[in-house]
Amino acid sequence: MLAVRQQLGMGPAMQHNTVETSTVGVVERIARWWHETRDHWQKLRELRDLAPEDLQRMAHETGMSEEEFARMAKQPDGLPELLARRLASLNMEPADIEKLSPVLLGDLARTCCGCGDKKQCKADFATGDPEEAWKGYCPNAGTLTSLRP
After folding, report:
1. CA distances from 123 to 11, 68, 110, 118, 137 (A)
2. Rounded distance, CA 109 to CA 69, Å?
């Protein structure tokens, strides 16, 4: 094995660097996951600690019921995961939609949260996300298609 590594130009120092590099990548991913999870837990605590009238006011400001607002606020990045994945698959950025219409992104998120076809959507992503299949069941399909670059 050492002879093969030497033929490939991988001396002992390079072998060590490869291990260090892959270890650093894993450590960075774990650290990023931990920070994202910790931040999400903090947001959930803040939501739980809101006074009922503050929750009601915030929900009203976004045009949602308190239940819809709470359900959306519990999403890790404020957007339902499946909507974020759908936008990414369409090469669309949430920030661009929000610039176009701040209310529109909230409407898309609220519609996604209340969708009854989440299992189908997840299955499509798991099997490679057929380009046209989602348009048949996604309640956001018309809007997303019209926004598509």
Report:
1. 46, 24, 21, 8, 13
2. 10
Q: What is the pLDDT along the chain (149 residues), one digit of tens a residue?
A: 444 444 444 445 444 455 555 676 778 878 777 777 777 677 777 778 878 888 888 777 767 778 877 776 776 555 688 898 899 989 999 999 988 887 898 889 888 888 888 888 888 888 876 677 899 999 999 999 999 87
Q: Please answer whether residues 109 and 72 qualify as being in contact, where contact means their C-beta atoms are separated by less than 8 angstroms.
A: yes
**Domain residue ranges in the chain:** 25-74, 77-149
Q: What is the rounded CA–CA span in Å between residue 91 and residue 80?
A: 17
Cα distances (angstroms) measured from residue 149 to each of 24, 51, 87, 91, 97 = 37, 41, 11, 8, 11
63: phi > 0 → left, psi -120 to 50 → alpha, else beta; which? left
Q: Quick one: which H or E segment has residue 58?
A: helix 52-61
